[in-house]
């Protein structure tokens, strides 16, 4: 009788564990887009201060130009322990002119996501490929040459 109870309890625990692994989770990441607020930003009439009041601070600004503001919203889904997959993404790109006024407003979706697959063994690079010994002994004689840092 005890062994039958133990078997049934083990089956229930096993089923609960397997059910937990099979759950899919949805998650929102980034900015929460409000369609009425994003369409309220007008080219030529709004500036940085009014955009910040309307939409808040951007998710990030441009690396090379601080006049590019990006608002990124992403919906992901993950199955058990696997990496999350993007199912929906919206990027609102607002570009300002030199005076701080809105110059353009663009909205894109997940079609622009780049899938980068690195090489398995080596990442190919441009330039000359060196052997092990060239890498090991290649700097001999280059130390303390005139014009290099550390030379007198």
TrEMBL record:
Transmembrane portions of the chain: none
Residues of the signal peptide: 1-19
Keywords for this protein: Membrane, Signal
Keyword Magnesium annotated: no
Outer membrane protein assembly factor BamE domain sequence ranges: 30-104
Entry-linked Pfam families: BamE
Protein name from the UniProt record: Outer membrane protein assembly factor BamE
